[in-house]
Amino acid sequence: MGDPASSKIPLEDRPTQRSEVPKRTQKAPKADDVISTITEDSFISFRKKFHFPNDLVMKVPARLDRACFPPPGYVTVYEFSLRAGLRFPPSSELIDILTLCGVCLSQFSYRAMSIVMGLIVLFRDRGVVLSSECLSRMGHLFSDAQGRISFRSKWLDIHTRDPSKGWISNFFYVQNDWGLQEKWGKLKELPVPLHIGAEDLLRILKLPDLDALHYEVRYLSRYVDEEYLFKVGLSTQAGRSHAQMLKKSARVPEVVPQKNHSKRPGSEEGLQASRKKRADEVLTVVSKGPRASPSKSYIPEEVLNHQCIGRRRAEELYSDFKLEMTKTLNDWNKEFVKVKYLQGEYKKKYDSKVKEMKVVEDQLEGYRTELANKITSVSSQNERMDYLYIELVEAQATIKQQEKAQQVLEAENEKLQSVLSEKEAQQSPSAVIEEFKKSYAFKIIIEDHIQEARSHIYDVEVKALEAECA
Hints:
Blueprint: H1 14-20, H2 22-26, H3 40-49, E1 58-59, E2 74-78, H4 79-83, H5 92-101, H6 110-125, H7 132-138, E3 139-143, E4 149-153, E5 171-175, H8 198-205, H9 210-218, H10 226-231, H11 265-283, H12 301-304, H13 309-426, H14 429-438, H15 440-469
Antiparallel strand pairs: 1-5, 2-5, 3-4
């Protein structure tokens, strides 16, 4: 792939060139910088090995095409995804998971694709459908810096490794007839459900215990084989695959038509002679009496009491089968009794848990009522405090207004006092006296003097009258 002139470089010069660009050779290629190595001949082997449908439209990428940017109407598919169990058309579970995660098909690594497809086949083999909730409970999809999606198990030990090293250049395009996302997107994490646990998974998959679930998931790679894919209906065109051994043959044996005998007179006479001879052999009894009809023929007693070998063998097989069935029924009865016992124990535990939950719910209801009462009282107190606060604010505003009015009055009084003092200083004493006479204080003084004069006159007159009376 390099320049042919590079092979002619002397050996002494090669180390210097390598030392100049050591970092460039050590960098790993990115997915958007690699040219596809898939050709038309690869499609022939893919159709034969992975059983592509006849109506599947595929396209070989050009030199300028990249895996991250497929042509419009196409999706990018890596060859390792086919080895990881991907078949066309994709399963509805895989389409739902890709839609919920918001990523395209080519972003799934070999580990993520093999685990997701293995879980889909495992669930289908158990008669159920893998949902996004069960997938998020069994593991966690995460994205790296380049946007590749991988799978990390939370509480299950799953070992899956891509055996191929040149996966990055083995990609091609498939026509998008299923509404999948075409360009690479950012991963949206699936929410972990709280209503699905280990016991629910065991019940869904019909497994006895957690060890059985660990065993099934640990050896999950066997579910992406062609037999299981064909068994659950993901590989629709198995062709000459050995997966056909999983289906029972329902072929009806053909009836070989008999050749018509010729109706020549000689053949009819021979046929009648053979029938007569056979009837004579049936009607003739060995060393016993003459010919008789079949209804009155004599059969020896030892012949009637005789049991053929086939009948004895059938009776032996029947007895063995009866013993085996009896043993199986006994085993089933034991398992049934065990299951009923466990069911009773689980029912007792469930009833006790229900009672505990009921007590807790009653306590919770009481706490809720008490909390509501406290909230009501606190809200009323808050309303009263708000009302008092509003009144306080209004009183403070009124006080401030009164203070401002008092300040204004004091200022006006000072102004008036100053004006009055100025006027008093400017006026003459007579004017002041005149002004004083006009004032209210002068009137009061005059009235006081008049009242004193009256009192004095009254006293004098009273003393005069008293003297005259005396």
